[in-house]
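Hey all, sorry for the wall of text incoming. These are the two entities for the joint prediction.
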Amino acid sequence: MPERGDAIVRHVVTFGRVLREVGLEVGPGRTIDALRALDAVDLTRQEDVYFSLRQTLVSRHDELDLFDRAFLAWFLRAPVMPPARSSGVTQPAARAVAVPVDRLEEGADEQADGDPIELGASAHELLREKDFAEMTPEEFRRIRRLMQAIARLRPRRSSRRRQADPRGNLIDMRRLVRRSLRTGGEPLERAYRSRKEVPRKLVVLCDVSGSMDAYSRALLLFLHAVVGSGRGVEAFAFGTRLSRLTPDLATRDPETAIDRCTEAVVDWGAGTRIGASLKQFNDVYGRRALTRGAVVVIVSDGWERDDPDLVGREMARLARAAYAVVWVNPLKGNPEYQPLAGGMRAALPFVDRFLPGHNLRSLEELAAVLAGIERRHAA
Amino acid sequence: MSFRTIDELEAALRDADYLPDRGLSTALFLALALEKPLLLEGEAGVGKTEAAKSLATALGARLIRLQCYEGLDVAHAVYEWNYSRQLLHIRAAQEGTVSEDELFGAEFLIRRPLLEAIDSEEPVVLLIDEIDRADEEFEAFLLEVLSDFQITIPEIGTIRARRRPAVVLTSNRTRELHDALKRRALFHWIGHPSIEREIDIVRLRVPGIPERLAAEAAAFVRELRGLDLSKPPGVAETIDWAMALNALGRQEIDADVVQQTLGSVLKYREDIEAIRDETLQQLVDAAKAGSH
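and here's what came out:
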């Protein structure tokens, strides 16, 4: 490497900084790899230089675009185009979410030692039943930890990994053989293991269109808590199109998380195209088998602006791959509600469980259903 | 065998009947030069697994493949003790003459792909296929193996690789992999090949195919990829289909023969149903126009 001269080293180090500025994670290890790679290839071939840098500095498919743009700008001195997104962020939406969260944070500390779940006194009982649409920011603050506790109840599946368990139902052959030594090969002393349980994949698709406005902030808080409950959770928001929220929600601080979500969702509070959004999900994420074996939860009132038939078709695709499909509809909290909306009617045949989601009590019910859900439809 | 330049490796891969694009050749070359695992991602059917197999052929190395799945554990990936043989051995021996050391010795060890790869005398290409299907716990374990290239068996001790195997991991991105694993590996995304390269691939893999048929088949598949399908066909499907067309003795494609053989290109019923009658005729026309 030394004979390559300092110029290349400087070049690559600066390029690494450029990449970090556009959001790629380029640590010193990667920069060293890039230099080693350049040392191994023919520097006069632009293509080889491009791939050497790309393969050492980029580790995700969705960063390729950013890399290409930075490479063009840095090495080929092409004019830099602004990143494609960021234009469609609507200001009113940002306000709608940011306000309650600010207040949520104020009381977070004093709340720290009291466990709200045990404060099951009448005041909290009332809060449990209260419709999210009618809650004040102060009330949201008080229910936050309860939400986290509910979110921790995840559906589980049994893994093929095992653990020693005297009451298990699988024989631990390694230990059995060892013990049989003492008894001349007779397996008198049995050792048992059992299968370990691990959380099942969970995918949540949350409707953030205008008709769901009253519930969006509560449900986003819930989503944040669910994503924080461990690995294997994917969260999406949709209105007229789909946005993946998992990376934005994966931060500890709910305020930051929800701010980021507001930026990520371009069509906050707009119309609903459930069918088109589900199609986008099936095409992009279903094809990568994200859905396979997962419990999929859709949170929406089922008001479809476009074609209800598309909702039915895409629900069928979704249900085929998923372990189970749960539909949460805040409107169902009203005892007189009937699923008459076209999209809702088209979706229902493919839904395993249909639940309300308008207050804490109903989220608890959701958590209980998720914890015990079984595959209902045939594969 | 080792390669001093990307061109040398490319030539060797071509001899192994694999036509990589420059990006993939560079990735494989760097994986060898930097002794780092290579993570290949891309749509199904773009030739991720094939790349590892061809690398093994080009290197004259043994290919060891670990197919990942949900619940894959150490007993199936690394090693397992042959318990029934152990028990029989204790019974056959005189009472009290069998020691634990003897019982947990190499003779009773069943080697699985990772141990095979680490402990191999000959050069090895280790293919860890569809790593995204394995549990995260397994991924963490794999990361350890790929850092140290050693495996510890409590009863025997630590086994170190005499020479590092070339490691190729593939993922269909059903979930994000651990950052730590990604940091350790080179990353290459394989896209669908250009039309010219796909024609070359078809002609290489389907010996004796008429030039025109190869070109039209590749062009038709490219048209299919432009549509909104549940599962767009990969190169593997193009090859299968070209074989079928060639076996039928065709010189070129037409709507009838496409209709009969569409099942080797499209794997979902709704996709096949979406391509019929007028749509199919249009695609055939477009493919013929595009291939001249």
